[in-house]
Amino acid sequence: MQISSNDVENFLNQNEDDYPFSGVTCNDIFNGMMEDFLEFLENERKEK
User: Fold this and answer.
1) How many other CB atoms are found less than 10 A from the CB of residue 9?
2) Largest pairwise CA distance in the chain
3) Residue 28 Cα distances to 2, 19, 25, 32, 44, angstroms
4) What 3-state DSSP class applies to 1?
5) Which band of pLDDT confidence, cut at 50, 70 and 90, is reported for residue 33?
6) Which of 11, 12, 32, 44 is deepest in the core (most CB within 10 A)?
7) pLDDT at position 23 over 70
8) What's the rounded Cα separation, in Å, for the pair 15 and 13?
9) Looking at the whole model, is its pTM more than 0.85?
10) CB atoms inside a 10 Å sphere around CB 36
């Protein structure tokens, strides 16, 4: 079974009462994670 990001977003919207990040989309979460990760990589490079 394939799950698309739309499925995830629909699921989160259905359950938004139990979901702590109201108004945050999967894209926002993913972009935040990517930014943190890129920052981490940059810092790793500087230390070497």
Assistant:
1) 13
2) 47
3) 21, 15, 5, 6, 24
4) coil
5) confident
6) 12
7) no
8) 5
9) no
10) 10
